[in-house]
Amino acid sequence: MPRTRATPPRRGASVARDSTAPEASDDAAGPIDTGILPELLGFNLRRAQISLWRDFTYTVGSGEVRPGVFSLMVLADLNPGIAQVDLSAQLNIDKASIVGLVDRLEDKGWVQRRRSTVDRRRQGVHLTDEGRRWLKQLRKDMLEHEKRFTRLFTPTELRQLIGFLRRIHS
Amino acid sequence: MPRTRATPPRRGASVARDSTAPEASDDAAGPIDTGILPELLGFNLRRAQISLWRDFTYTVGSGEVRPGVFSLMVLADLNPGIAQVDLSAQLNIDKASIVGLVDRLEDKGWVQRRRSTVDRRRQGVHLTDEGRRWLKQLRKDMLEHEKRFTRLFTPTELRQLIGFLRRIHS
DNA sequence: TATTGTTATACTCTATAACTATA
DNA sequence: TATAGTTATAGAGTATAACAATA
Known about the structure:
Two copies of one chain form a homodimer. By secondary structure, chain A is mainly α. Helix content of chain A is about 55%, strand content about 5%. Chain A is elongated and about 65 Å long.
């Protein structure tokens, strides 16, 4: 489905013309005033994250992989048979959302669900051989991607930065 | 539309059982091994951003507003009649995506498009009176939201952190 | 009763391609 | 030809609610 939209009235919308609006010039010409935005932590964090995200999606796994998928595969590699509910906890996203990720990875043939013999509710996630081969390449791409950003910092700065970020998300 | 899925084969998928997989235990029991993930800049940046995002969406504008919408309104307030193509450049997202944002804001009655008299291709974005009233509240919510995270840092640390983030996204 | 996994549904963010009106 | 805006389409990310199987 395309973008949803409540109701059509757009162009000649019923919004009354605004009484206090400046009437002189109806264009914002010249340089744009960005106000306090550049000073906000959230604004800068968001933009930084978008920069990394874009670089990641263009370079890691030939654009076939997203950061969440990479993390999921690393976890499945290190913890064979990890429960989807554990992936959910580690990646901090809802278990219902994990299902979709694992579905797509299973369609690609990179992971496999296997019903646990111990607790038959669990559908453990395992990497396939092909998944392992891909992960090897993904790790390489990932490290190059990291490098492109970490090289902007001295080792001390990088340690500081990561410490700051942990303070935010912990 | 719900989540898309290529083909149904999920449960008994045709992926051959993996020869090199550890067969002993098919469950990952005990603590989860997260490997290098916690050391990665991208991983930490992503999680920090998600923390802020969640706090923002729950607290600013009673959950009716996203960071992008807030930024857009600030820009429209400071630059009455700003062109959508300029919003696109400032917010670093495609102009086609801006249209949808402005659509929803216009539906809410917070902004208004007005055809420029100077360049009739331009549909300048203006805040309405109601939009301005909302923005006043949004700014307050926004500053409280920021405070909840900036108070984790000393002024010096915060300056450092923002400097680091700018280095990444500039 | 509680947990694991799943489905259905819905909303947001974002992009690309192709188009219209205007310059 | 180039630019501003728009539409159609698509896919990713994420959430909530309700449910089945299992514990």
